[in-house]
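Task 17 of the worksheet. Students: predict the tertiary structure of the chain below and write it out as C-alpha cells. Keep your answer in the requested format; marks are given for formatting as well as content.
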Amino acid sequence: MLKIYNTLSNTIEEFHPIEQNKVKMYVCGPTVYDNAHLGHARCYITWDVLYRYLKFLGYEVTYCRNVTDVDDKILKKADEQGVEPSVITDKYYKSFINSMNNLNVLKPDIEPRATKTIGEMIAMVKKLEANGFAYAVDGDVYFRVEKYKKYGELSSQPIKDLLNGARVEANDKKESPLDFALWKKDELHGYNSPWGKGRPGWHIECSAMNKKYLGETIDIHAGGADLAFPHHENERAQSECANGCMFSKYWMHNGFVTINKEKMSKSLNNFLTIDDVLKNYDTNAIRLFILTNHYRMPVEFNDSGLTAAKNGAKRLINSIAGMEIKDEYNNEAVEEFKNAMDEDLNTSKALAVLFSLVDKIKKGIDKNINANTLVYLGSVLGFDFSLSQKEISIEELNEIVKPLYDEFNLDKELSAKEAIDKIIELRKQARENKDWQKSDEIRDKLLAHKIQLKDSKEGTTWQIL
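Model answer:
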C-alpha cells in the first residue's frame, strides 16, 4: 500500500484516491521569465517519478502542470526589453520544455497557460466577492484571510501568530495585513474586468486552472517546499471558500537544492541552469544525483556528488549494453522495489534494488531476466536506457539527429529526443497501417545515423550505437 507524507496533516498517510483507480494530480509549473535551474530539475524530476509510479501501480492519472505566463517578473523583463510579454513567455517556455525533455521528464497530460484562463479567474474572484470573502478597493481585489478559519493549517502557522508577525504598511488599502491580492489594477498590461483593467494575482491563477481542468477537488497538489506558504496556503483558502468543498486531499512538497547550505534561487543569484549542468552531466547522472536523496530532504549541490552520480549512472545504464530486452521479470526484485517506493517514495532504497540487479547481471546470475527487470524498474524512476552502450552528451545527440529534421520534415523547434520520438511515432503509424515497407525504411534510415530501434511489448525504445 502506497503511503505518502501529507503536509496538511504532517503525517505519513495511506494513499486512497477520491475516485477508485483514478488520480487527479496538480503541480505548480514554471513562471516563464528565465531559464530553468537545478532547483527546478529537482522539483519536476520528483513529481515525474510520482507520476510514473502511480501509473506503474495501475492508476489512471490525470497530471496537470500549469504555466504562469502573467506575472510581475515577466512584465518587468518585457518592459526592460521593450517587447510584448508574450515574446518573453514564449522564449522561456520553449527553453523550459527543452530542459524537461533533456531531463527525460514526461509531459503532463494537461499544461494550461494562465493567460488562457483569465475568464475563469475573474469568475472565481466574483464568487469570492459575492460570498463576502473578497473586497475591492480602487481596482484591486483582496481576499479576507481572517474569515477563512482554516488559514495557516497547511503551513502550521495559526492566524494569530501570522498576525503578530505581519508587516503593517503605511496607507495600506487592505483591511488586514494578511489579506492578499486576488486581482491587481493594471492599466498598461491589464485585462477588462468588473473592477477595471487589471490582472490576476499569482495564487488565483492556480486555483482557477485547477478547477477548470481537474475539478473542485483533487487528490494530490504538489510543488516545492517554498510554495507551501504563502502560495499553497492562499490557493487552499480561496479555492475552498469559492467552491465550498475540500480543495486537495493530499499536499506534497519537495525539499530545496542548496549551494553552501543556501537555497538555490534566482534572487540569490546562486543558481545553475539545467542546460549548464547538462554540458557536463547527462540526464541519468542528474536524475541519480537527485533520487539518491529522499524527496523531502534538501540536496546539497557539489561537483563531487554529481561526478559520483555520473559514474553510478554509467554503471547502471551500461549494464544492459548489447542485451535484448524482453517481458520477463525478477518478481522478488519488483516486490522489493515496490515496497521501497510505497514508503513515501523512498527512492534511495529503490535505487539499491536497481544496483543489486546490476551486480547480478555482472555476475551472470539470471542475466537476461535481471536486465529486463532493471529496464522495467529503472524506467519507473525515469532513467533513459537509450543512452546505454555509449556515453553521449546532449550536444553530440543534437549533431546525430540534426540531418533527420529535413529527412522527415520535422519541426526544428523539437528537441533531439522529441524528434526521435516523432519519427518512432511515424513508424508506429506505418505498422498500424500494415505498411511494412515504410516501417522498415524508417528503421533503416535511423540505423544509418547510428540510432538503433528495439521493439517490445512495452513499446519501441532507441539507443545510440
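Marker's comment: The first strand starts at residue 3 and ends at 6. Residues 394-464 form one domain.
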